[in-house]
Automatic annotation (TrEMBL), chain A:
Domain ABC transmembrane type-1: 92-277
Lineage of the organism: Bacteria, Bacillati, Actinomycetota, Actinomycetes, Pseudonocardiales
Membrane-spanning intervals of the chain: 28-48, 94-116, 123-144, 150-170, 209-234, 254-274
Record's keyword terms, sorted: Cell membrane, Membrane, Transmembrane, Transmembrane helix, Transport
Membrane-topology descriptor: Multi-pass membrane protein
Name recorded for this polypeptide: ABC transporter permease
Annotated localization: Cell membrane
SUPFAM superfamilies, per the entry: MetI-like
Family: Belongs to the binding-protein-dependent transport system permease family.
Domain of life (superkingdom): Bacteria
UniProtKB/TrEMBL annotation, chain B:
Record InterPro entries: BPD_transp_1_N (IPR045621), MetI-like (IPR000515), MetI-like_sf (IPR035906)
Bilayer topology term: Multi-pass membrane protein
Protein name: ABC transporter permease
SUPFAM superfamilies named in the record: MetI-like (SSF161098)
Annotated transmembrane regions: 21-38, 113-134, 146-165, 185-206, 245-267, 287-310
Subcellular location: Cell membrane
Top-level taxon: Bacteria
Organism field: Pseudonocardia ailaonensis
Pfam families: BPD_transp_1 (PF00528), BPD_transp_1_N (PF19300)
PANTHER family xref list: DIPEPTIDE TRANSPORT SYSTEM PERMEASE PROTEIN DPPB-RELATED
Chief location of this protein within or outside the cell: membrane
């Protein structure tokens, strides 16, 4: 049987189902392509864009999209495509940090609240409910007010606003896992509480939390670029995506490409991240 | 019988109001922790804002300001005194403009209420226009397309749609002068911008509950009585399917308020959003605190109102004596309305 399964016929049928999946879910494949391209931008921007993102060529200022400048150039003659490519690293790093802050703080809160239960659980969940009553962007703005401006501060602020959502999901999962027989068995053979928490509850409760992380990744990009657009994030001349759109505002009537392309990039990446998150959620059910 | 029910209702309302005050207190505390305990230096900000060289502030001036605002006292004393003032409706003074925060909020609220109200109306229309055809159609491809629109709409940054709309409608077509704050067009553009993500949210909630309502047995009963498909979708199903939406209004209004920060900044309009934007830019802590409290208060008031109105719209839900106030989560409306006895379905 094994020989048959690993033979060329099996590989062929796997390829076929793989191809069928692509036909059936072109959106998902497209989403993955977008994400892979953008992540490569972040790691090796020089491979995709050859012009300098910081110093421009004054002779080439405010040129429309062309073969030489895919996304056109700005008022200093800087290539907008190059700035978008080089901005990927800044935006994605901030997004990753924001999701990690939410995941770590919210996950820990939810895990402890769900595992310990009782009064602690009640207090933590009340706080979580109140945090959910304050719109996320306003909470982020409050944190930015206190911490000051910059990419790092904005990333932390966006992370803080997602803590409540992570805590809620993590607590629900912890409660579900804690009630299962194998956890009871672990307790009954005398395992320490911390060991049970780390070895049994956490790994079994992490699935939906990771699906939420994918979803939060998309909304974190949106929040971070919104805060940068408002001028609270990366300071010029750093090419952050939201800041790029903001820079183009003064040329709305004359140089449409300056706002259009960086904004389109944000929209496509968020769309791709959300599509992937929906897929992760779907495969879990 | 009736008087007993009324007494139960009064008790419920009182408990609900008390819980609302508790939420506001908790929101105040969270905002206080974030704004006053994180490493920031309000006095330095104040001196920088007033034009003094903030690189090297005069120690005497710093001490005088600290004493004036009470920053020299222990944190717990600051918390208690500012909470006491907040209870009397005094949210302090703006650092940047030396105006009362409450009067600033009151002056700006009207502008944002108009913008948010128009946006809410547009979002409702947009949501219905997506969800109803999706429930009507028998073609899976059309349904998939309609249901796919909201996921695109929530992925597009509002600051970008606002600028695109300005570019096309105002600069290229010349239909609207965005800088004229009093024209209808100048209100419509930001309202559309604000409505796009909200309509996507409404469409998602509505189409989900509409499709599940159409699968209910009572829909089949109505159909077998000879009701047309349009009547089933528009009258019977939509009425039941809109109930989960009602419980989401608090979240929707909160998101409109938060969205107004970006939209009012893009369109340079007066209102709570622009005030928040300027307050954050100047690190004006009392104003930011006031806006956070305003958002929490709006959420609390709306959720109490929804809880009180809900039983009137859905007779299956009754408020009983000793009921604990429900959370703001969407309620699954799955019971069969053709059943003879209306049961209490809310846990």
């Amino acid at each position: 049987m094994t020989a048959v399964l690993t033979g060329p016929g099996y590989a062929g049928s796997r390829l076929r189902t793989g191809a069928l999946d692509v036909v059936r879910r072109p959106g998902l494949v497209l989403a993955l392509v977008v994400l892979v391209v953008v992540i490569s931008w972040a790691f090796v921007p020089g491979l995709f864009a050859h012009q300098d993102p910081i110093t421009g060529v004054p002779a080439d200022r405010l040129q429309g999209p062309s073969a030489a400048h895919l996304f056109g150039t700005d008022h200093l003659g800087r290539d907008t495509f190059s700035r978008v490519v080089h901005g990927a690293s800044l935006t994605l790093r901030a997004t990753l940090l924001a999701v990690l802050v939410g995941l770590a703080a919210g996950g820990l809160l939810g895990l402890v609240a769900g595992f310990v239960g009782g009064r602690l659980d009640a207090v933590v969940m009340r706080v979580v409910d109140v945090m959910l009553a304050i719109p996320g962007l306003l909470l982020s703005l409050a944190v930015v007010t206190a911490l000051g401006f910059g990419t790092l501060q904005v990333a932390i602020a966006v992370g803080v606003s997602s803590v409540a959502a992570f805590a809620r999901v993590m607590r629900a999962e912890t409660l579900r896992v804690r009630a299962q027989t194998f956890v009871e068995a672990a307790h009954s053979v005398g395992s320490r509480r911390f060991y049970v928490l780390a070895a049994h509850v956490l790994p079994n409760a992490s699935g939906p939390v990771l699906a939420l992380s994918a979803l939060e990744f998309g909304s974190a990009i949106l929040s971070i670029s919104s805060l940068s657009f408002l001028g609270f994030g990366a300071q010029p001349p750093a090419p952050e995506w939201g800041a790029l759109v903001s820079d183009g505002r003064d040329y709305l009537g004359t140089a449409w490409w300056l706002t259009t392309f960086p904004g389109l990039t944000v929209a496509l990446v968020v769309l791709a991240a959300n599509r992937l998150a929906r897929h992760l959620e779907g495969t879990r059910e | 019988m009736r008087s007993r029910r009324d007494r139960g209702l009064t008790g419920y309302v009182l408990r609900r109001l008390l819980q609302g005050v508790g939420v506001l207190w908790a929101a105040y505390t969270i905002a206080f922790v974030v704004l006053y305990l994180l490493p920031s230096d309000p006095v330095r900000i104040m001196l920088a804002g007033s034009g003094t060289e903030f690189a090297n502030p005069d120690p005497a001036a710093v001490a005088a300001l600290e004493a004036q605002y009470g920053f020299d006292k222990p944190v717990i004393v600051q918390y208690v005194t500012s909470l006491g003032r907040a209870l009397t409706g005094d949210l302090g003074t703006s650092i940047q403009r030396s105006d009362e925060v409450t009067s600033m909020l009151a002056a700006a609220l009207g502008h944002t209420a108009v913008l948010g109200g128009v946006a809410f109306g547009l979002a409702l229309v947009g949501g219905l226009l997506l969800a109803i055809p999706a429930a009507f159609t028998r073609r899976p491809s059309v349904r998939q397309t309609l249901l796919g629109v909201p996921s695109v709409a929530v992925s597009v940054p509002t600051f970008w749609t606002g600028l695109l709309l300005t570019q096309v409608v105002s600069f290229q077509l010349g239909w609207v002068d965005v800088f004229d704050q009093h024209s209808v067009g100048a209100l419509l553009l930001p309202a559309v911008t604000l409505a796009i993500p909200t309509s996507a949210y409404i469409a998602q909630v509505l189409s989900k509950s509409l499709l599940s309502t159409l699968r209910e047995p009572y829909t089949e009963v109505i159909r077998s009585h000879g009701a047309s498909e349009a009547r089933i979708v528009l009258v019977s199903a939509l009425r039941n399917a809109s109930l989960p939406l009602l419980t989401m209004i608090g979240v929707i209004v909160g998101n409109l308020l938060a969205g107004s920060v970006v939209v009012e900044a893009v369109f340079a309009r007066d209102g709570i959003g622009n005030m928040t934007f300027q307050a954050v830019a100047a690190q004006d802590i009392p104003v930011v605190m006031g806006v956070v409290l305003l958002a929490a208060a709006i959420f609390v008031v709306i959720s109490i109102a929804v809880d009180l109105v809900y039983p009137l719209l859905d007779p299956r839900v009754m408020i009983r004596e000793g009921d604990t106030p429900p959370a703001a989560a969407p309620i699954e409306v799955a019971a069969d309305v053709t059943a003879a006895e209306p049961e209490v379905v809310r846990p």
